[in-house]
Amino acid sequence: MSILMNERLRARISQLGMSVAEVARTAGVNRTFVYDILRGRSRTPNLDKLSRVAAAVKVEQEWLLTGKGRVSGGNPITEDYNNEFVAIQYAAARPSMGGGAIVEDEDRSVRDFHFRRAWIRDRLKAAPSMLRVMAVQGDSMCPTLNDGDVILVDLNQRNPTPPGVFVLHDGMGLVAKRLERVPMSEPPRVRIISDNPQYAPYDCTADEVNIIGRVRWYGREM
């Protein structure tokens, strides 16, 4: 499978042990420029700035664009790159499926979760830096999500079209709910749905809903 520019740049930055701030400072560009590439938001960046970023990480610009070109000290994209696992940050804040309160995780023994890089790119079509692992609590999304389930949230996906399960802030804290747009509503409205029929759905205007990200995967202990 082909490797995207954001993956090449991320792999090179990791190989050199640099931070995004160091790359941006060395290249003389804004950190946002580098972050936009890493998050897959900029597929056609300004070539002059990209050339400076390439120089900062000691590769040819063509390598960043196509994967072909000189890489000082060795190419970070190995034959096993697609089969490698990438760490996804575990977020301490827990999305509740009941009252919505944010619960800080005091168990510092919890480590990042690891997923196969190729699965994230080819199946989820997501940027690892924009994914977070969270634990859910409550029963309002049963049987889809149970109390204690672990979810993988894509922070880049904040549009409830198509409908799906999202993490959002309801004004009190984080909640995991099913969202769908209300057809023909003006102003645009979003319906917030609990899969547990004991909890009634309700509508809000789109401006009132602070969507954090779409739930892409969940895990459950047996």
Which key phrases capture this entry?
434 Repressor (Amino-terminal Domain); alpha+beta; seven-stranded antiparallel β-sheet; 222 residues
Helix and strand topology:
Layout: H1 5-16, H2 20-27, H3 31-38, H4 47-56, H5 61-66, E1 85-88, E2 113-116, H6 117-124, E3 131-135, E4 150-154, E5 164-169, E6 174-181, E7 189-193, E8 202-205, E9 210-219
Antiparallel strand pairs: 1-2, 3-4, 4-9, 5-6, 5-9, 6-7, 7-8
Q: Would you kindly provide a written description of the structure presented here, covering whatever features stand out?
A:
This protein is an alpha+beta fold and 222 residues long. It has two domains: 69 residues, lambda repressor-like DNA-binding domains (434 Repressor (Amino-terminal Domain), Orthogonal Bundle); 136 residues, Umud Fragment, subunit A (Ribbon). The protein is built from six helices and nine strands. Strands 3-4-9-5-6-7-8 form a seven-stranded antiparallel sheet, with no helix packed on it. The chain has a two-stranded antiparallel sheet with strand order 1-2. A hairpin with an 8-residue loop joins strand 7 and strand 8. It is elongated and about 60 Å long. About 5% of the residues have low confidence.
